[in-house]
Write a structure and sequence with these properties.
Layout: E1 2-7, E2 27-28, E3 31-32, H1 33-42, E4 48-53, H2 57-64, E5 67-68, E6 71-77, H3 83-92, E7 102-106, E8 109-111, H4 115-120, E9 128-135, E10 143-146, E11 152-156, E12 165-174, H5 190-193, E13 201-206, E14 210-212, H6 216-224
Parallel strand pairs: 1-4, 1-7, 4-6, 9-13
Antiparallel strand pairs: 2-3, 5-6, 7-12, 8-14, 9-12, 10-11
Length: 231
Amino acid sequence: MNAIILCGGLSTRLGEITKEAPKILLEIGGKTILDWQLERLKSVGVPEVVLAAGHLAHVLYDTIGAERDSMKLIYAIEDKRLGTGGAIKHGMEYLTESDEPTWVLNGDILYSIDFGSMAKELKPDSDGIILAQRVEDASTYGVLEYGAERRLKKFKEKEGLVMPGYINGGLYLFNPGIKKYFPSADAFSVEYDVFPKMKDLHVYESDRPWVDVGVPDRLTWARENWRVFAS
């Protein structure tokens, strides 16, 4: 299996916290977010990871280097902002096993799900799987709409409604065929320019601990509750 971690964002919501270092290097429970994510990928046998980097990519490389926890790191550095879809497309150019499924992770999230269990749900003839993460307050996230068969019907934009829901958990396992859905443009969104074209993208539901540390209050929560991700 392949893996791409999206870590090229500007991190503007964290202000001074990420002025000189990318979010993925933030420490939580004595480890960087990258370390937490590499542990999950290593558990399913991923040997190397493509880091889709942009903002402060030089800091990331100088700090981490080309190997971490016995895993090879490949840097796909963006020379302009590509959006989530463009970053995935660009990152896939660096994969050494392009005919294998590819994990894609958002570089500002801590996960506690069993990656192996999610991988077992991947159907070889499907487009892939997306993590449907339950949160108590879905007002600031895009919500996933799907039926009993767990096939994605729609990615709904942020609606601002304070209520529980299953959101895009920022974790995907794509089959190689996803490339046929990419537009010719360099910069685009996977949520709005790719997902609507897919006919067989399944969801993997989870209500286990999960946190997007992209804003200060959630980062504080993660630093206070990191042990729930260590199990």
